[in-house]
Structure prediction request, 261 residues.
Amino acid sequence: MKRAETKRKQIDDKLERRRMKRRKDADEFKVVEGVIDPPTLKVLYKLFNRGMIRELHGAISTGKEANVYRGVDPEGNSVAVKIYRISTAETDWMREYIVGDPRFQRVAKRSRFLIPQWAMKEYKNLMRYHKAGIRVPKPLGIERNVLVMEFIGDEQGLPAPLLRNVKLESPVEVFNQLIEIIEQGYKEAGLVHADLSEYNVLWLDGPVIIDVSQAVLQGHTSAGRYLFRDIQNITQYFRKLGVETEDPKVITKYILSSGEK
Ligand SMILES: Nc1ncnc2c1ncn2[C@@H]1O[C@H](COP(=O)(O)OP(=O)(O)O)[C@@H](O)[C@H]1O
Ligand SMILES: [Mg+2]
Prediction:
């Protein structure tokens, strides 16, 4: 073979290998094709091309507003991929938590546009909590209705259990930890979770707060009411476990008075 030909063949081989690799990588999305609508699939490919995710595995959770999947990044680390439903989502209730938020000056009316704002709100809230040193999944990326975040679980890809499914050694200690997290969230991150309960706390050598899309800034007109509701939920849960807690009203008052940010 002439030199030029050899060279061309080498390049062809290389391209073919690359094509094969791409095809193989794309196969990793097979599980979800057909389950996920085409626009969302496009978003997933974008995240794939940006090097955020390499594989997507089965659902960890299928909820009303979103499904959460375990993904794998190009280094082989597990990530959590939360995919918000665009078309079938109930969005009316969301408005209460996003209208008036200075970070979202123009709240969309149609769910096609509101859901991406809602997903972005979760990303921004995770970032605030994370920067304030509060244990939440570290946010890694956001694209339209898909949020990529740190996977809370073990090396084998098994997700951490919910607080409600864990038999705690010392409930009173965990109760105090959670009240401290609520206080820190308010004072340091300037946020009220607004949907805190034993259903939105994972357990991995301690509590990790999740599901923060509805969390509101301290300045929100109902921040105090949501704070009380969060504290009430946590208090109720731990009272059932036999912890003698303080009155949630007293705890709320204390947190509200002890720090405006
Ligand atoms: N970062 C994560 N790592 C591991 N599991 C997660 C993560 N985020 C969510 N999950 C799992 O997915 C479930 C649903 O997530 P969540 O954010 O609470 O959404 P929903 O709005 O459906 O309640 C959680 O209960 C938890 O089991
Ligand atoms: Mg939840």
Q: What stands out?
A: Residues 3-27 form the longest helix (25 residues).
